Structures are given as C-alpha cells and as structure tokens.
TrEMBL record:
GO cellular component: membrane
Pfam families: COX1 (PF00115)
Molecular function terms, GO-annotated: cytochrome-c oxidase activity; heme binding
Name of the protein: Cbb3-type cytochrome c oxidase subunit I
Ranges where the Cytochrome oxidase subunit I profile domain occurs: 8-394
C-alpha cells in the first residue's frame, strides 16, 4: 500500500468477512426450512431469516464498498486519507447500527418493506453515518494532488447511492406509492449507481492488474457509465408492472429493461479486452481471477438472467416466483460480491506484505464458490420453472407446489455447501494474511510505478 491510512480498509474488509459468514448461516436456515427441517422456527421464523439474510447482503456489500473506497481514494488522490480517526468512528457506528437492526428483526422490530426492513429510527443513524463517510472521502479528494476519472466515478457512485436512500424514508399510506418510491432505492442502487461504483472499482483493478494505460481504461469507463444511465433509470419500470401504476410502464419498463444488459455486457467486454491488451503479468493472479470473473458473471446473472424474465409477457408468469431468486443470487454474486472479493484479494497482500496468492487455496476458493453459486442458481431456476408451470399455468395451490419442489432445494443445499467451502477457503486466507504491516507502506506487490 502506498499510504499509511489505507490500513483503515482492513477493518472494513474484516467486517465484510464476518457479515458474509452470518449471511450464509441464515441462508442455510432458510434452505433447511424449505425441505422441512424447521426446528428453529420458534426462535427464527422464516420471514425473520429471510429479512436478515437479504439485509446482511446489502450491509456487507456496502461495507465492502466503503473499505474499497478507503483503499482506492488515497491511492488515486496521491495523499493520505483526510481523517483516519473519523473513518474508525464511522466503522464502529456502522457496525453498532447493523447489530441493533439484526437483533431488532428477531423481535419483530422492522418496517416489513423488502430490502428496507430496517426500522425508521435507525434510518436516520444510517444517513448520519454515510454522510460522515462521504465527508471523509470528499475532503480527501478535495485536498488531493491529482484527479482521475476512476476516483470521481467511484465517489459520485457512492454519493448518489446515499442520495437515493432518502426516497425510501418517505412515509406513504398508499401501498402503490410506497412501492413506487421503494424501488427508487432498491432498483436505482443495484441497476444504477452501484454500477458506477462497480465501474470505478473495476477500472482501478484493471489499471493495477493489467498494466494497460489509464487513459484507455478510463475511456471504456465513460462508455459503461453512459450505458448505465441510458438503461438503468427508466429500467426501474419493470418493477412497476403489477403494483397499480399506469399501463405505460409496461412499455417503458419492457424496452429499457431489454437495454439493461448492455451495461454489464460492456463491462465484460471491457475487462476481457483490457486483459488481452495487458502490458504485464501481475503476480497476483487470484485478484485477476476475481476481477475478470466479476465482469463475466455479472453479465450472466444481472444482464442475461435479468433480461430473461423482465419482459412483461414473461414477467406476468414469473413475477414473485423463485425465478426472481435465481436471477438475484447470481446477479448480486457476480456484479458486487465478486468485485468486493477482488478488491480484498488485491489489497491484502499490499497491506500485509504476505504474498499468499501463490498458493492453491485462493484458486480453490474461487472455483468452489463460483461452481457452488452456479449450482444454486441452476437449482433455483429448475424450481422456479416448475413453480411457474404448476402454480401459474395449472393453478395448483401455492403450498402444494412448494412440497413438489422440495427435491430441488436439496440440490440447492448441496451446491450451497460447495459454495460455503469456497468462501471458507477465502476467509482462512484472509486470516492468514494477518494485520496490516507498517513495513508494507510505500509499495504495492507487482504494480508499475
């Protein structure tokens, strides 16, 4: 690492590993409940496990983005972080709010709005926390010796993510209005401004890992940003099909949802093209695997599988079924989870000075987790298609259909076990790296100065 203050990122990454582990635990709780082993129901009902599982996903990814920003922004700005103390205060308060929210879920203290279940009083604390984070990052950039497109795209992605959290805090008595603005948060995050964050992090990693000229990589970044805004904003319409909004959203949502895969396709082509043009062989092949894998898997999960069921004529049958879960798992994994793991894989050797990427465990982590996730996606796809046919076409009762697809959840649990083995290898490697070292300051493994 080039600067002492970049060590702050380690503690955000460590928090990520803990939250990811908890998310997997709650995923298994739901998986076993699906096949009839619901012994924890009196303590952790399925709705509690689901809310905890999905919110942990959002929190650990946001924590990873913050850690990535604290690592990337000082390096891109060529200066120390504005305030290390403020960063630690922000992390501690972030964790405290998260812990209170998760405990609250188990006592039915929530709003009951998917992905935004966090209780309203905690919303205000989240806003204060994120503003603190953005202030720290903004001041680092403001006092920087240089500017870069990568740096600014990452910052504005984070800033817009914070601003788009606010519509979800508006209270409406009307269910349609509430759902309408809730999707401003959920959709415009994951298929809008989070893609800016993804583009900024991806650009940084490609610059570091391929040796391709920054100007070339950042020109591609402009293309990705343009495609994101072209499709992502009005693509929100595919959430408005069946919630009581005007019928024109069927056309608007359908057309622009069909364009949404272009941004992810652009990222995949961009990453592969930069790899082919690479001017050096970076020794950290594991970080390169995660980086290229993120670009490709995001196109499959977020792009292709999203497009496959967002056209209105298809979505009228698949909406609210396990087809959505199929798309969601691979989309979040490819676009954002793999990217956070890529940043961690790149940063840890630089922060600690330990080159563990030369061992086999990193490759096992990559392949086991990806094969496991593809297996889970496949199991959910088969279960979802079966559910659509039996429930929506033949008119069978919902609970009867759930019994018919139990076998597919057994397959999903087997794939989830392989996925967990891969993540375990990753976490073990993270622990083996140890704490950041002062001796590692001033240099990065394999980078060109």
């Amino acid at each position: 690492m080039r600067f002492q203050s970049q060590k702050v990122a380690y503690w955000f990454f460590a928090t990520c590993m803990l939250l990811l582990s908890l998310q997997i635990v709650y995923g298994f709780i739901m998986g076993f409940a699906r096949i009839g082993f619901d012994g924890l129901h009196d303590y952790i009902p399925f709705n509690t496990a689901r809310a905890t599982h999905t919110n942990l996903l959002v929190v650990w990814l946001l924590t990873g983005f913050m850690g990535a920003a604290y690592y990337i922004i000082p390096e891109e700005s060529d200066r120390e972080l504005y305030s290390v103390k403020l960063a630690y205060i922000q992390l501690i308060s972030w964790v405290v709010v998260g812990v209170i929210a998760i405990i609250g879920f188990h006592f039915n203290w929530w709003e009951g709005r998917k992905f935004l279940e966090i209780p309203r009083p905690l919303d205000y604390l989240v806003v204060v926390n994120v503003l603190t984070f953005l202030f720290n990052i903004a001041m680092t950039i403001w006092e920087a010796k240089k500017r870069s497109t990568t740096q600014l795209v990452l910052f504005f992605g984070l800033l817009c993510a914070a601003l788009l959290y606010l519509p979800g805090m508006i209270y409406f008595d009307n269910q349609t209005l509430d759902s309408y603005f809730r999707w401003w948060v959920v959709h415009l995050w994951v298929e809008g401004v989070w893609e800016l964050i993804m583009g900024g992090i991806l650009a940084f990693l490609l610059i570091k890992l391929t040796g391709v000229d920054r100007e070339v990589i950042e020109k591609w970044l402009y293309v990705v940003v343009g495609l994101t805004f072209l499709s992502g904003i009005l693509g929100t319409g595919h959430h408005y099909y069946w919630i009581g909004t005007p019928k024109y959203w069927l056309m608007v949502g359908g057309i622009f949802s069909a364009l949404e895969p272009l941004a992810f396709l652009g990222m995949a082509i961009w990453a592969l093209n930069m790899y082919r043009k690479k001017g050096k062989d970076h020794p950290n092949k594991i970080a390169l695997y995660w980086t290229l894998g993120s670009a490709m898997m995001s196109f499959i999960g977020a792009g292709f599988l999203g497009f496959a069921h967002t056209w209105p004529a298809v979505n009228q049958w698949t909406h609210g079924t396990l087809i959505t879960a199929m798309h969601g798992h691979l989309a979040f994994w490819g676009a954002y989870a793999m990217l956070v793991l890529a940043v961690i894989s790149y940063a840890m050797p630089n922060m600690t000075g330990r080159k563990l990427f030369t061992g086999m465990s990193g490759y096992l982590a990559f392949w086991a987790s990806n094969i496991g996730m593809v297996g889970m996606t496949g199991a959910l796809a088969v279960a979802g298609i079966t559910q659509v046919y039996l429930e929506r076409k033949l008119g069978m009762d919902f609970l009867v259909v759930q019994k018919e697809i139990v076998f597919h959840f057994i397959g999903m649990l087997l794939a989830a076990t392989l996925f967990t083995i891969g993540i375990t290898y990753f976490i073990v490697d993270f622990i083996r790296h140890g704490l950041p070292s002062n001796e590692a300051v001033g240099k990065n493994v394999g980078d060109i100065d």
